[in-house]
Amino acid sequence: MLLDPNYLRDRIRTVPDWPQPGVQFRDITPLLQEPESLRVLVQHFVLRYMHSNIDVVAGIDARGFIIGAILAYELNVGFVPIRKKGKLPYTTIEEEYELEYGSATVEMHADACKAGDRVVLIDDLIATGGTMMAGKKLLERLGATVVEGAAIVDLPELGGSKLIRESGLPLFTLVDFSGH
Length: 180
Ligand code: AMP
What we know:
Blueprint: E1 13-16, E2 24-27, H1 29-33, H2 35-49, E3 56-60, H3 63-75, E4 78-84, E5 92-98, E6 103-109, E7 118-126, H4 130-141, E8 145-154, H5 160-166, E9 171-176
Parallel strand pairs: 3-4, 3-7, 7-8, 8-9
Antiparallel strand pairs: 1-2, 4-6, 5-6
Helix pairs in contact: 2-3
The chain binds adenosine monophosphate.
Adenosine monophosphate binds next to strand 2, strand 7 and helix 4.
């Protein structure tokens, strides 16, 4: 079966002015909700990484956990969470990064992966790229090799995907949204 090129994009809902005025929130829950589209979505990532000798999938809080955990299961590797500050119970390492106003911090357990592990780092969406760059730094501090960043959606106008690629991390995304 050949897919309509807009199959995934048509199942992402745009919610204007959420969580604050001016933000076009790209909501992936319709894509997760139907058994067919969930399967199609996961399959894109599985096919991308099934021959890449991946050791670990790292998912970013919170929507990166959903797709990341399924991907890890399908690749027959483990899953590790990168969480917002204050959520992980054991010894953590942390990275702070800049937001438009203020800053945010992500954490990972200090034993989440080991030196030399080949990791795919996944989130639902790339906006400014700050979150994924912070995740990359955490993984690299533990000596892991981040093979590629992956996300469902790229918002190229916000420059994050360019920033990530320019940092030397390849990036794989499925759907672009520009403007409204
Ligand atoms: P950034 O660090 O700026 O690339 O932001 C990416 C993170 O924020 C991801 O974890 C996304 O889930 C979330 N995010 C940022 N902007 C949006 C948006 N317009 N729609 C949905 N999620 C967003």
